[in-house]
Design goal:
Blueprint: H1 7-24, H2 28-34, H3 39-47, H4 66-79, H5 81-101, H6 104-116, E1 121-124, E2 140-144, E3 147-158, E4 165-171, E5 181-187, E6 193-198, E7 209-220, H7 231-267, E8 269-270, E9 273-274, H8 279-307, H9 313-338, H10 349-357, H11 366-384
Parallel strand pairs: 1-4
Antiparallel strand pairs: 2-3, 3-7, 4-5, 6-7, 8-9
Length: 391
């Protein structure tokens, strides 16, 4: 793995860092309190190309690689993790799905709108009864003439109140269960589609999370992404990129919490000394720094594999698992080092502590990541182990 960033990667990172520092960081606390992100702020990010980072230039995107994408996502999350949610879902879960599985006609129709940020897209897989068990979706679609008719509910939809399009996974052959799932690209203004109330959340509060309801919603059959009854393949393929995006988010949150901890302990005095002068504090900072570095490297390894056209299921899960647990550990220690000040909203570590928690839940819980990693490890072992001698 090359540890030297290319000029393009550096430029993407630096552009994101400047935008995050000047526009997001000063507003992050206000957005959290109001539990809302104005559409014009997304428009500013769109002007910088952040909605089309991974999209080829022929479709209006920046045409950058996954390493550059992770660097951008980390910088955005470092300033405002809630704002980053919309970008990572739009880029790594929806746009790339259309790029990989859509027809050329579909790509030309929708990707330029998505890459420019003129339209925002959301990913709709989870349901009230289908979270970690994503293959058990009940939201159904039946083919009638030239349309699919959708009925059911999708839940935990990030960007639900701002999305113009929804990538929706529906059951088209219940007898086949997960093998009977199809993927549809659904416009927000489709009759029969309604966006439910915004959830009141612990963290990432300025990122909207909604239910989406379908009641006899008619979607053109031409909006089928990939092949009928093979939508679960689309979902699983997208999870590697999605988990990598959340890993980058977790690294950004952890880095922000660490930065605050370092700054605070260098100024705060107790017993006639700065907190940073106590060995107990120094040991905590050392462990925090080490874990952040490891999380970042795991994330970049997964990104580099994807850029090389290689499978990264195990690596993306490892990055997501380690980075999310690191974010929670670092945010906890940062708050602890702040003492009582860390418990009030005047200090940003309180927000980092709340924002970090979701990283161990969405895009697959920590428990699911351990299942994925163990399965990959055992599969690799079975493929490489010598044949046991007959007894």
């Amino acid at each position: 793995m090359n540890f030297e960033y290319t000029d393009e990667q550096k430029m993407a990172r630096d552009t994101a860092r400047e935008f995050a520092k000047k526009r997001l960081a000063p507003l992050a606390q206000k957005l959290d309190e109001e539990e809302h992100t104005p559409r014009e702020l997304y428009a500013e990010a769109a002007e910088l190309g952040f909605f089309g980072i991974l999209m080829p230039e022929e479709y209006g995107g920046l045409g950058l690689d996954h390493v550059a994408y992770c660097l951008v996502m980390e910088e955005i999350a470092r300033a405002c993790a809630a704002f980053q949610v919309c970008l990572t879902v739009h880029n790594s879960l929806v746009s790339t799905a259309l790029l990989k599985f859509g027809t050329e006609e579909q790509r030309k129709k929708w990707l330029p709108q998505l890459a420019s940020g003129a339209k925002i897209a959301a990913y709709s897989l989870s349901e009230p009864g289908a979270g970690s068990d994503a293959g058990s979706v009940k939201c159904a679609a039946r083919l009638e003439g030239g349309h699919y008719v959708l009925n059911g509910t999708k839940s935990w939809i990030s960007s639900g109140d701002v999305a113009d399009y929804f990538l929706v996974f529906v059951q088209t052959d219940p007898a086949l269960k997960s093998r009977g799932v199809s993927c549809l690209f659904v416009e927000r203004n489709t009759p029969g589609l309604t966006v439910g109330k915004k959830e009141k959340k612990l963290g990432i509060r300025s990122s909207s999370t909604n239910e989406v309801h379908f009641k006899d919603a008619k979607v053109p059959a031409a909006n089928l992404i990939g092949t009928a009854n093979e939508g679960f393949k689309v979902a699983l393929t997208q999870l590697d990129g999605g988990r990598m995006g959340i890993a980058a988010q977790a690294v950004g949150i952890a880095q922000a919490a660490f930065d605050e901890a370092v700054s605070y302990t260098r100024q705060r005095q107790q017993f006639g000394k700065n907190l940073a002068d106590f060995q107990a504090t120094q040991f905590k900072l050392a462990d925090m720094s080490m874990k952040i570095d490891a999380a970042r490297l795991l994330t970049l390894r997964a990104a580099a594999l994807l850029d090389g056209g290689k499978k990264a299921t195990r690596e993306a899960s490892a990055a997501k698992l380690f980075a999310s647990e690191t974010a929670n550990q670092v945010a906890y220690q940062a708050l602890q080092l702040h003492g009582g000040n860390g418990y009030v909203r005047e200090f940003p570590v309180e927000r980092y502590f709340r924002d970090a928690r979701i990283t161990e839940i969405y895009e697959g819980t920590s428990e699911i990541q351990r299942l994925v990693i163990s399965r990959e490890v055992l599969k690799e072992a079975a493929e490489t182990a010598p044949v046991a001698a007959a007894r």
